[in-house]
Amino acid sequence: MGFCLLMSTEVVARIGGLDERFGSGNFEDDDLCIRAFQVGFRARIALDVFIHHAGSQTFKAAKIDYRQSLMRNWKLFKRKWGIPADSPVRKGVSLSASIDFRRASLGPAPRCRRRPSVRGRRSLVAGTGLSGRPATTR
Questions:
Q1: Which residue among 17, 21, 32, 106 sits deepest, i.e. has the most Cβ atoms within 10 Å of its Cβ?
Q2: Which pairs count as long-range contacts for 93-97, CB under 8 Å and 24+ apart, including other chains?
Q3: pLDDT in tens, 60-88
Q4: Quick check: 2 and 109 in contact, CB under 8 A?
Q5: DSSP secondary structure string, 30-96?
Q6: Cα 40 from Cα 89, distance rounded (Å)
Q7: Would you state the pLDDT for residue 69?
């Protein structure tokens, strides 16, 4: 589970942003990363960064039932990616063999040549990454 993505605007230009059908959270991040993998982008974890994150605060503040949101979005995610309807929520799901998840790697993310900026070539997007891989880069 991640909560902060850094990606180039090229990623958003090629695959779009977060799928709004997922609403306030749960699986929108996984979906984004899968779409990025499909077109050849890679994901990395920035091991030299610490971000304090108090989980589920948006859900609490908006009085959203987390479990209900999780189950609703799990159904949507399964339909979208062709996962059998009876698959339970768990870590690790089999997806299309055409997506090469071996390209995801642990280790330091590449250094940014520019300071991250919402208006610049890079932007920050709240969300999480597939299998805990929060940084999507080319």
A1: 32
A2: 95/34
A3: 999 999 999 999 999 999 999 888 888 88
A4: no
A5: HHHHHHHHHTT-EEE--TT------TTHHHHHTT--HHHHHHHHHHHHHHHHT--TTPPS-S-----
A6: 27
A7: 92
